[in-house]
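User: Let's play a game. I give you a shape written as tokens, and you guess the letters that built it. Ready? Here's round one.
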């Protein structure tokens, strides 16, 4: 089977999306691969574990960014028994997604979706827990002539800060819990080239890039008051290693 995406399910277990087999699978601690849910006739893309020990999976009818009124694009929340708990998808009134590709649940129960809108462009869609659109993130403000914000993956930390990889911006960005740009965690000057995938393990951030390298960082934060008494969050990083 073809694994499209991996995600931690907690307790040493790994979730896997089997695109062509139209299944969500799990690699158990004992090394056994078991089926969690069948998604037929839809294909699973990105997936994530939720704070209530369930899973969210991106679903598409075709691997295509050109969609029609008959196209099916959305998300499904399932439990460990494969039962569908919630479904969020395009309707005749509202088109939330073009091709939902990656997903992450924030600690505040918001759902963040990397949505490809064409073969070369994407956006970060934020939904509340009911599936209602909250906002579309634009990332760092661009200077004239720069590439548009082009997210490829997203994850969230324990304080609801958002980390998103900007594929053509060659950067990894930190967004606030209100989804405003805070700073670049990594940029091209740090050797990042086409960041494709992210994984956060406590304070350790793993970044897989299109140049075949995996960068591992340890993140830390501290707060300070500004001149107006507002709390300012400062993030710092230390590079642990680069795997080629």
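Assistant: Ready! My guess for every position:
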């Amino acid at each position: 089977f073809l694994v499209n995406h991996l995600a931690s399910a907690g307790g040493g277990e790994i979730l896997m999306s089997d695109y062509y087999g139209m299944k969500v699978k799990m690699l158990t601690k004992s090394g056994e691969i078991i089926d969690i849910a069948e998604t037929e006739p839809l294909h699973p893309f990105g997936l994530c574990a939720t704070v209530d020990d369930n899973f969210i999976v991106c679903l598409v009818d075709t691997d295509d960014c050109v969609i029609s009124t008959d196209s099916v694009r959305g998300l499904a929340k399932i439990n460990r028994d494969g039962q569908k708990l919630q479904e969020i998808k395009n309707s005749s009134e509202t088109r939330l997604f073009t091709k939902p590709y990656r997903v992450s649940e924030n600690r505040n129960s918001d759902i963040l979706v990397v949505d490809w809108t064409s073969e070369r462009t994407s956006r970060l869609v934020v939904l509340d827990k009911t599936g209602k659109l909250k906002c579309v993130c634009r990332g760092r403000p661009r200077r004239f002539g720069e590439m548009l914000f082009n997210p490829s993956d997203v994850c969230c930390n324990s304080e609801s800060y958002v980390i998103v990889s900007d594929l053509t911006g060659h950067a990894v960005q930190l967004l606030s819990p209100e989804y405003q740009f805070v700073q670049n965690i990594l940029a091209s000057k740090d050797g990042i080239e086409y960041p494709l995938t992210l994984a956060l393990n406590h304070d350790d951030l793993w970044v897989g890039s299109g140049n075949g390298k995996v960068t591992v960082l340890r993140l830390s934060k501290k707060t300070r008051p500004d001149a107006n008494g507002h709390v300012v969050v400062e993030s710092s990083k230390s590079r642990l290693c680069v795997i080629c």
